[in-house]
Amino acid sequence: MGEAIAGALGRDLKECAVYERVGYTGERDPKSIGFATIRAGDIVGEHTAMFADIGERVEITHKASSRMTFANGAVRAASWISNQHNGAV
Questions:
Q1: Where are the domains of the chain?
Q2: Cβ neighbours of 33 (radius 10 Å)
Q3: Are 21 and 28 in contact (CB under 8 A)?
Q4: Rounded-to-integer distance, Cα 71 and Cα 75, Å
């Protein structure tokens, strides 16, 4: 998602990505794209993409209640790929 956003803005993600702000509470450079991670308690799969501006934000959230969800997805992906034909990428 970060690569798509950077590309749409005509930026190189490697140049504008900010991954850590420990101890820094000021404004981020407006041309940067910020990423943050939080791990807490027994939460197994909660992911939120937030697009924020002054006074508003849009959030896209995915929540998985069990690690089995990810295992099932891996099995489905393996099954699908095993039925694909060889070819150029």
A1: 2-82
A2: 19
A3: yes
A4: 6
